[in-house]
Amino acid sequence: MTIRELRGEFVGWKFTWTRGINLAVGFIALLIYEFFARPIYRPYIYSHQINDFHIADTIGNSLGTIATIYIFLGLIGSTRSQHDFLIKTITISLILYEVAHPVLGKPMDPWDVLATIITGVFCWVLYRVLHRANVKA
Predict the structure, then answer these.
(1) What is the DSSP string of 66-95?
(2) CA-to-CA distance for 18 and 74, rounded, in angstroms?
(3) DSSP code of residue 41
(4) How far is Cα of residue 88 from the mean position of the Cα atoms in its chain?
(5) What is the torsional sign of CA 61, 118, 134, 9?
(6) Distance CA 100, CA 112 (A)
(7) Rounded distance between C-alpha atoms, residue 115 and residue 95, angstroms
């Protein structure tokens, strides 16, 4: 996706069924994180010392990755190749951000890196399932 294509996306933006589905998935992930995972799930798991296999630790990263990818897919990109590019680019960018945490003076959490990788693959598969009528082999 070039800068010219990106500009064309914004100038000629129109709401489509695909964009609506992508935006809905992104905002649902955001709302689940903000209204359930962060204020209810994570404190409950920590206060009862439940071993949930690092889900409470990485739920922000996981749901944040889903929200970021699908909101971007809803706002920019209109073809399968553009969406594939965006899913890969956003996932790699979030992984690099996690790996660069020591440069920013924060500790790097390998569980967050793993969660981002798994969630990026999940988003790619979910995209194919949600838009299988639009996706050609």
Answers:
(1) HHHHHHHHHHS--SHHHHHHHHHHHHHHHH
(2) 8
(3) I
(4) 10
(5) positive
(6) 12
(7) 9
Model confidence pTM above 0.85? yes
Cβ 80 vs Cβ 51: under 8 Å: no
Phi, psi of 79 (to 5 degrees): -120, 165
Asked if 32 contacts 116 with a C-beta cutoff of 8 angstroms, the reply is: no
- Token pair for 46: 């920590």
Cα–Cα separations (whole angstroms), residue 79 to 17, 31, 36, 45, 51: 13, 27, 33, 41, 41
Distance, C-alpha 12 to centroid of its chain: 24
For residue range 17-52, list pLDDT tens digits in order: 999 999 999 999 999 999 999 999 999 999 999 999
